[in-house]
Each structure stands twice: as C-alpha cells, then as structure tokens.
Amino acid sequence: MDFTVALAQIKPKLGCVADNCALVEAAVAKGIAEKADLIVFPELALTGYFLKDLVPEVALAVDAPELVRLKELSRKISIAVGFVEAAADYRFFNSAVYFEGGETRHLHRKVYLPTYGLFDEQRYMARGEQFRAFDTRFGRMGMLICEDMWHLSAPYILAMDGATTLLCLSSSPGRGVTEDENLGSTIAWQKLTSTTAMFLNSRVLYCNRVGYEDGVNFWGGSEAVAPSGAVVQRGKILEDDLVFTRMEEGALRRERIFSPMMRDESLSITLKELQRIDRERER
Length: 283
Fold this sequence. Notes:
Blueprint: E1 3-9, H1 17-33, E2 38-40, H2 55-58, H3 65-73, E3 78-86, E4 92-100, E5 103-109, E6 134-136, E7 139-145, H4 153-160, E8 165-170, H5 184-200, E9 203-208, E10 210-213, E11 216-219, E12 223-225, E13 231-234, E14 241-247, H6 249-258, H7 261-264, H8 267-282
Parallel strand pairs: 1-2, 2-3, 7-8, 8-9
Antiparallel strand pairs: 1-14, 3-4, 4-5, 6-7, 9-12, 10-11, 12-13
C-alpha cells in the first residue's frame, strides 16, 4: 500500500529524557496533523548519543511510562524511535522500537556497536544478537541502527526475511570535509543508502539527528530512498527538519519486476558457502 512517512530529524538533549520525550511527542503531533502514516526518529532520540556513564540513569524498560505513552499515540500514527533499553538482567541496549495500532510490533537491539574513532558504545552497552523482519500495515519491514547498516549481512538478512522497507535510525557525526566542502560522512551515507536500496530492491528510510554534543556535530540529511536507489526526498543538512514523503507501492512493484535481484537471490547457495567458510576458519 502507499503510505506517507515523516522523518523526524530532531536535536535531542544529552541525558534529558523528559525534554526529549516532549520533543518527540511534538513531532508526533505534527505528523498526525499532516496525516502522515508513519514517523521515524533517530537513534537514541529519547536520550542523546554520547551518554557514557549516564547510560544506567536514562535507560528505560520496555514498559516504562514514556514508552507506553508513545505506544498509545501509535493508534493514530505508527512510530519508530530509538532509546536506551534496560533489560531485566541489568544489561543496557541501544534499541529501537516500532509501535503501531497501540501495540509493540518490534524491538531491535543494535548488534554492531562501534568502538573506533569517536565511538565507544560497547564499553557501556550490550550487543543485540539478531536481525528480524516484522509485519506492519505497510508491508514487511526491518530495522537497523546506524552501524548495523554498514555490515552488508544485516540489511541482506532482513531483505531475505521478507522486508521490503528498511528503517535505519542513526546518530551520525559529521566527519571529513571534502574539497567541495561537503562532509565525507554525508557522502558515504548517501552512497550506502542508495546502494543498499538498489541491490536489495527495497525502500530505505534513513533518519539521522542534528545538533552538538561534547563538541561533536551531527549532520542530519535524513532521506527516503526508492527501491531503484533514487532519492525521493532528503532533509536539510545541519538543521532540524521534519521530512514528509509519499512512498508508492507501484515503485516497489516496478523495480522488483524490472530488476528482480531479490527474486533470483539464492539463499541456499549463500548458506552453503558461508558454512564452508566457517568450517575452513575453524581448521
């Protein structure tokens, strides 16, 4: 089915859950007013990114009042939002939850926690252990959190699990100014989202945050990418934005007919060869 998505390119405050919840709810209200069907927020939208020792203080159980409130709002608009999840065994996860129709449809825990350059996530949070597609009223979807997208196997697994729309929630800092004064991180992400969409015949909805934390700038540039790899709509660079985009089922159908990569993909060959590689590595 056709649907309208809002990419909420917000500026969360580091460690201020109440303020960020208010920011998220305000964006949800705008999305509802504009008759959007789905609103996507960035990675760790409820907490900010460079949390370090603040992680236990800002973590929320999945049944926390703040999340229950968003779950109730999902009766009017589907919601994908990032937060720090507090598990029952006192582990903390960089998680994203998808609410729809007043229910929790899916919870994804970030698998690939970067520990290079500016990043030190694995020091403070536990790793997720799976990638699973899930059913929504807009078709089958999959969720990725920032670094997950940079591992080819992650979106591939979701696509093979039937996802035709990939949601990527991101907190990508601006890095590497090029000769034409673009950010290297911006160029890299735009190549990645386009290539992923094209190879997997899938829509990619990428939502990145903006603002500064500890002197680090987040660049925004959220975008909706068609299954052909073409950009349908793109958000502002370095400014908060609410990007509305109409996603058409016809575009997905056309691309899967004329470039049937997913139809022809052989899961059995992939599994056989990966098992061979695994056996050889163990020798």
